[in-house]
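Structure tokens please, single chain.
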Amino acid sequence: MSSVAGCNGARKGGGSDGAQPDSGAEAGQDSGSTDAQRQERYEIDIFAFGRQLGTVAPCGCTTDPLGGLQFAFGYIEERSSAGQRLVLEPGSFLFPDPKGPEGPVDEAAWAQAGERARLLQTRFAALDGLVSGLGPTDYADPSKGAAALSEFALPRVLANLGETDPEKSPFGVESHRVVPLGRGLEAAVTVVLDPALADEARNSWAPTFPLISPPLPALQALSPELAKSDLQVVVVHGPRDLAESVAREVEGIDVVVMAGVLDNPDLGRLGSAPVQIGQTWLLEPGDRAQTISHLTLSLAPTVAEGTLPESWTLLPSPQQLQAELDRLEDKLAKFADDPSADAGFIARLQADRDELKKQLADPSIDPTLAGAVITAQTKVTCRLPHDAAAKTALHDYDGWVAEQNRKRFAGVEPPAPAKGQAGYVGIEACNECHEEAVAMWKTTVHAGAYETLVEGNKQFDLSCVNCHVTGFREPGGSEVVENQNLQDVQCEQCHG
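Here you go.
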């Protein structure tokens, strides 16, 4: 973004649904205002991610796919300024959960996971203001274990690292980090990990994962160091009740990010709206970069450098204003043809609607507000701006996967059917007896399933191909490359 965008009192944090286009002033155009009116507010942006789990892009086959690094980073770059932001991720960043549905099952799948980890580390590490945690799945690759931390180095922190064995001490992990935010301000950031998650991994697929101590005593011991900074931020890689305990029991914490395991699918996609416990903000992003929690602190020019306001005023984001405007418009539309509707009530709704339109048209913040807080839960979709570097990296990753797997699986056939067992015959054989049914099938999206992979150069991607061919790795079925007669989701996938 330009040096002016995001200042001039502009309300940011729009999100994918209902985000408003930038006004001329936000785009850096001279609107003819006086020097006093052009004084810029200073804005600090906090972007919180949940567990990434080695994910670089969503499955594109869902109705409204969420995620994609190119859109997440496009949003961050547009909505914040370098040197004025924090980007937070809790750990369990590099690799999928080996016991989860996306866990790699063989050497080829782990090779893809390793390349995704490299993509993630390269793009995240290039962004200023990044602070990373340490989570169990960062140790998940059986060929790397703890060595993944040095191969994919990030500015990692963990407050409750309890490991005393030097040989098991994780590479490059500090207790906390202090991040400069400009105007003489600093943020101290740390992460705590739920010991139960560490124990579960250590007793299963990550035997070298370090020992973890109880989170609250560790934070209380670290509190004097955190208090030396203007903002104190704790990322909790654990359950919500632990995050709420941190907010209540650890003095001086300004922001707590809840970034643990999200078993609820809706929470995994969307997270939950920011809330306050006392003076502490609690943010809960979705996982896999599906929804980012975004908090903006906007300072008036009158706030002295090196200080923060004594009080903050919560303001709605453009996303929230637009949602409320849409609600009022729908309500007014329902009353439009109702002659019995109360005229006074309708007039109040219209006045509220007009006020919302004014606020959206002029997103400036009242200059008398020393400190304003704007929060947003931003869905990461293709409607957000894209980041060129991430887009190129994703394109290169698809090319690498296609080339590697084309070579790796050329000539590899699925298992043969057992004696007396039928194999898959393909759509042309179905057509011999079921011409009408096959004609109908050809009109469905199933008939073009494989071509959608070819268009994106994903036809050899192990995360994709199994759902776009028929009888994948079944006896007499299809394989990654050897699937010529069984491409697309044919009749036999359900009726074979």
